[in-house]
Amino acid sequence: MTKYFLLTAIVMLITLGDMSIASAQSSVQNGFLNNRTTETVITQPISLETPTGTLYGTLALPQSRSRVPVVLIIAGSGPTDRDGNSPVFKGPNNSLKLLAEGLAAHGIASVRYDKRGIGETGKAMQLAAEKTKTVLREEDLSFENFIDDAVRWGKQLRADRRFSSLTVIGHSEGSLIGMVVAQRMGANAFVSIAAAGRPLQEIILDQVKSQLTPDLLKTTEHILNQLAAGKTVQSVPNDLNMLFRPSAQPFLISWLRYDPTKEISKLSMPVLIVQGTTDMQVRLADAKRLADGNPSAKLLLIEGMNHVLKTVPNEQDKQVASYSDPSLPVTPDLISALSRFVNEIRG
């Protein structure tokens, strides 16, 4: 296990090559109907060269004689890969893969990718480091790395003449990354799905307050205040070392610089904020807070949708099971709403 992987795991908030052709009949398997079910979708590997390594992803491209919209899908926190899966859970849920397939059935191309330290990208970077006898140090990874990588993906897609417009879609932590990316590289639109509307400092305190003693909670508050001020903390109690160990602190410092309500307020392009009503990780209040940050944004609440974009009731056992169940379709209303929003965007 690489240190990059460990770093991306500590803050999980629960927590061109061979080509294959796939029929868009998958849209029926995804639980919704549309008028494009006979359209063929091409899926193929896609890569991005960066100064510090190659990133790997998947391009889903509807066959079309004309230019089509494209979305850049940015996955959420922890070791979540391009398909929305994580080794933290018993099995895959394929949420982002199913999302891409659903959009493709509506004539919308997409790129989803493995971030640094994750999936194929993580393995490739580790192999490259071994060949050059270098070490991937977690203190060298920052939140800005994720932003810069996504900006490069966006620019690559903007330069591709097959695409008519570019929409950035960020899921969970990927939403905050996407807000900054959409602004920096001039995307045509931005979509936030199941995203926190509070700064990281507030989220961490909210999640640990019921698990820590009063003294440890006070220490956590002090450490977070120091990190938010850009200062590292040398003395960390053993009980808090997994989250605040010195090698992880630079990443947390870089993440704490960004407040989602402030970042979303900077966006002047069309913005859609989507939140499921049975999401057990992110509150409805978070979505409303984001909407207040950008009054021109559209807020969409999807009844019965949970954090991994599936229709699941508010029952603990069914919620947990859905995180490892690829047979559950992505909520049809999400596919329909995103398709309408993206297809209305003009490049």
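Second entry:
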Amino acid sequence: MTTTKKKLPTVSAPVMVLTLPVSKQKIKYRPFVIKEQKALLLAQESKDADTVLETIKEVISSCTNGTLKFTKVPTADLAYFFLQLRIASVGPEVKFSIPCMECGADNIINMSLNDVKIDTKNVKTEVKITDTVGIKFKLPTIDDALDADESDSKSVKMLYSLIDCIYDEDSVYQKSDYTEDEFREWIENLNDAQVARIAEFVDSIPTLKHTLKFNCGTCNAEQSRLLEGLHNFFRFDSNS
């Protein structure tokens, strides 16, 4: 007589809800599981940007059941969500190895990812470059960041992708009516003060930030390091 093997019991994952800080979209998600954590660790160790991005895409899609369209939400929301996903999955504690600015000795610093903040209060999506001319922007998505030409100062390509419209006292000029080359020519005819006002938008784009303060364990010199952007917190080993 053959016996039917019983299926192993199904272990359900907790369903969590998070409100994204910029778009205010509510996302239901589950923590990532061991096989997804291993994939993230392998991506981290590869140091290949494309591998990292594709792995993040797959994990986000699985953990949110495809409801978080990561190419549609601002990068700030994506970074914040991924940080919270990491905390929910393996905990908030991480370790950093940081060299002393004075003596060069390595310092192992423990910190909690719960301390990492994202400031959305001072975002400027509309700037006036003269008394009568202004620009309305949208916040960048990961697609915008990937398409940007980093060799281009304040990336005209990036700015063009983020424009909603330009306006003056008489009219509104929709981006769809103008090419990137036409926008570039318009930008190049602005003066330094006007370009600096556009930079106010770029500088206000929210990002993950945390300042680590510690004394060197070797020479006791006071240290301060600003960690900014998701890449500084891309750590998925529970012991990292």
